[in-house]
Amino acid sequence: MRIFHNLNVDFMAHKKKFYLLSAVIILAGIISMLVSGLHFGIDFKGGLEVVINFDKKIALSEMRAKAKDMGIGNPEIKTFGENGILIRTELQTMNKEQTEELKSYTENIFKEYKPDINFQLKSVNNDEYIYKFDDALTAQKIVEFLLNKGAQAGRVLEENDETLVSVRLGLADFIKMKLSNLFPDNEFEVIKVDKVGPKVGDELKGTAIIAIVLSILGILIYLAFRFKFIFAVGAVVALFHDVLITFSMYILLYDVIPGLNLEITLTVLAAFLTLVGYSVNDTVIVFDRIREQLKIYKNIDNLYKHINDAINKTMSRTILTGSTTLLTIVVLLLFGGEVLRAFAFTLIIGIITGTYSSIFVASAIVLDYAERIKKKIEF
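Predicted structure:
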């Protein structure tokens, strides 16, 4: 299938307009970043993130009002899907009072199962509490009862002792306890719990930047061997352009689109790396056609014309490839669930930007360089 038969558009005549458009978007993103800062997810910022799905929908204002009574500082509350709530706190552990409250709450569950039950706290290892019961059957029944209540519990199988039960009493469990008390008539399910220390978050920021820079550096070296060095420079500048444009749009659209959580997470980083690979592939297709034009029409010393002809001839392939890829990503955005929504949105912006830069940025930089040095480019 081909579209745009015999297309003859002077793309390079408009390159300065598109330079200006890109500069405006990137500048707006930088200003927005300086004013409101970057919005990192739990992967980079550190802290605890709990996603809860309620049976009945809860108003965000009601949840935020009641969250003040949970005793976990000033948590960040957001919607997550249709009936879901995302709770994020920078706290990592409970204080002594919270630990005792959760411990008493858990032991009351034991007594709810059997009022005269006998148990003994045998040991504590971080968030893991080991309780000893009278016999193995009671221990098994307690584990089943705790699991039905939404607690994290299991048997501890030691030689000659089958009466031990392990119960996790961490900050996430404290939040679940508070929610049970605040919303007794609305059952809920914990979808996910993420906990990242601040040191790990800082290390992830550093490795994220290194990953993107190394991938772009590798592309620069590859393209320098495959084409002329200036083609490699044009492609790498276009890649930086794509990342900056997508990043700027990400910042500018934060909290603008309802239901879209645009925070910088490891999933979003994966989208940026995917974008780098997609964009350079699009650029290489155009560069291949430019090289072909220069080889076939050696007697025509007009790089401006060769670049325009190459873009016009590859436009059909560029639009069809971009459209089919976008269609797949839009399906992922709509039906891939909350976790993949930011990943899909990043790719949508990146694919549009990558297609645009292959035409108006990478090739234009090659042309500008050739005109500046006034030297014929030959293959």
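Summary: Residues 11-41+198-373 form a domain with the Multidrug efflux transporter AcrB transmembrane fold fold (CATH 1.20.1640.10).
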